[in-house]
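Recap quiz, item 2
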Amino acid sequence: MNSWNFISIVTSLLIFLPILLILTNFNIQSENWLHIKEHLLYRYVSSTLYLVIGVGIISTIIGVGCAWFATCYDFRGRKYIEWILILPMTIPTYIAAYSYYDVLEILNPFFNWSRKNIGVKETMMIENILIYIIVIVLFSFVLYPYIYLSVRASLLIQGSRLIEAAKMLGISTDKIFRKVILPIIKPAIIAGTSLVIMETLNDYAAVEYFGISTLTIGVFRSWFGMHDIASALKLSTYLIAFVFLILLIEKSYRKKEKYYNIRGSRNSLTRIRLGKKKTIKVLIFCTTPFLFGFLIPVGRLFTWLIHSNFHLMDVNLLTITLNTIVISLISCSVIVFLAYFINFSKNYFNNDALKKIGQLAILGYSMPGAIIAIGVLKLNSSLNGIVPLMIIGSILGLIFAYAVRFLAVAWQPIESSMEKQCASINQASRTLKINAMTSLFHINLPMLKKPLLLTCLIVFIDIAKELPLTLILRPFNFDTLATLTYDLINQAQFFQSSLPSLLIIFISVPAILIINGQLNSET
Amino acid sequence: MQLRILKYLLIFKCIISVLIGDINVYTHRHYDADKKLFKKFTKRTGIKVNVIKGSADQLIQRLQSEGENSPADVLLTVDAGRLVRAKNLGLLQPISSKKLLQNIPEKMRDSENHWFGLTVRARVIIYAKDRVNENELSTYEDLAEPKWNGRIVIRSSNNIYNQSLMASLIEANGTKNALDWAKSVRSNMARKPRGNDRDQARAVASGVADLAVVNTYYIGLLANSSDKADREVAEKLNVYFPNQNGRGTHINVSGGGVTSGSKNKLEAIRFLEFLTESENQKIFSESNFEYPLDYKNASAEIFSKWGSFKADEMNLSILGLRNADAVKMFDLAGWE
């Protein structure tokens, strides 16, 4: 084994270690576990399934529909639609949930009436269904951009020639979408949807607030309520099973993708022109997610901000904002570099062991952040006896924990674009005995500049929003905008919490603009 | 480069903190009152207070994995149960302080001096003035009666305050009765549990239900909110202290202890003592509406409005011991 593979394998294993420490609890049979299995597991799994299926379907419809319209059609306002559709991504699910916290209260008069006239039990059922619908729609409206982005990238790269060819053959637009486009963007849809589902599985605050008992809730209930970490970790292995399944599906589709992949330079896309009536329909379809996923929450935050009289105690907001930006920037660079380096070693040297071990390192994305935190804490305590090294409570430790959680976000796009664009070149370079370092920096890097930058920005946004890991692993007196928001919401200071929430959104907006610019620019 | 600078900064910070004898606090308390008090403490003693806020369970887990090397000196939580757990895990050390023994009533501290209560919270019934007559109310147990069918809202059993209340009911009435109680209350609910205590108050004010079970300070916060809608909610509600003719209203404490690995033990003890001084107790109750340790003589205006009450004399350590059972009873009762 050469040093490249060795370094990559060791790094992957290191990132996998905290996850391994969690998985070792799978065989536990405690009294609490029997209780959970008998009375709760079914409820946890079923409500998680409802949520995942609901969010999966709705966010896919929104994400794919918007990407299709914004990429392949030409209509008035398209230029703006293109990038405002990415914006909801900047809103963490917990902030979205709090900004809609009283949406059900609007219906109180109806519920009061129905309780008296239809019955308490029946009303509860209606309310319960409504809660599911609200949470599903809410999650879909802030998470669909993951799908929108990946589908749009795929359409821009591969769609144009096919659409033109199909049009020349006189096939109707509907048919083009179903028969030509859908098959080629399927892998992109699956990749985006799997990210959305993982984010859904991860949420704690929003489902807690709306009273939905998902697996993640179960994990915390066993940990906090029964003080049984072993059972909590065992429950979280169910979450990992979910994600493993998703990753497998994604993999199998990506294999098929090679079949459809079309090489060659990208033509600039000739977009289909839309008439007035259709323009209105398309505009309504594309602005709805933006309205509910961004404009309304941000609007509410702004009104709260005015209510708060811009009063934010004596918190040093500038430092906290800088903290957030600096830690997110450093971490996203580290994470993207790691993903790039490991994938390159894997691709260039075609190492089988690394292929398998790499898959393990990205499992962290499936788990609630707080569970990863336990893994990192456990790692720390097992190391504690050997070396007096403190992983936790340092910036370095925090970056490591982010890597455990977010490597997957960088991994998948980098892996797939490397397979698509660099695989054969790397093979050739190896035959020609071109030095790996040269290949890494002078051949692969220029080719992958764009996907690398894009994933870097997405990871940046993810870390700027990150809450549970930061909360528990941070150094003393270290706050980020997310922890400050959480702190204020915890004191029910909704008005005051609006300012840090808005700042989380605003520091991510430049990233969104760059992402959009990059997508549109020619390769 | 930036990483290196950050690292140096951190090392530098650590060295400084050892020299002056800062204290490092892990706290579950998220209140402005604390911020004020920490500042005041630093001003008076010159000892800086470094803080990590998080949920107590996670902080306990962190303490555990940091072991001997933990930088923490003090752990603060919002309930006695977690302090008991921290003690049982060997994370707190016994301390001797006359002042603490003097300022804190016996049942609000650990019998072996590992942890100490700092503020008192009462879990009470609140009801809509226009729809409920005070004479209809009596005890927590009474909430299981059919007359309350479809008239109660209460938050999810994921919450520690409900778990502690349930633990006290198990202790008082036995497991079976407690389970029956939870089942009946669950079927009396007007809606599935969701939201926090504040949301329950809002629900009662807007007619969703006629009564709710909440911690008193939430009502204090609503009544003194800068938001007019919040104040209107508080105006429509009255506070009722249940079980006054029996064992008394369920209370819990928010409290703290000195960690086993503390390197600044003296400063940490001084810090806890400071928080129990009567003028500082006032800050807790005036800005966060929690009852002071001496809750019978609480002076803030809102307390006199609610009236005095008799508290359950149960030893608070029991809440910790019964917590897991309480959660299981909720599970069996189908109380989400």
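Chain A has a mean pLDDT of 85.
The beta strands of chain A are 73-74, 272-273.
End of item.
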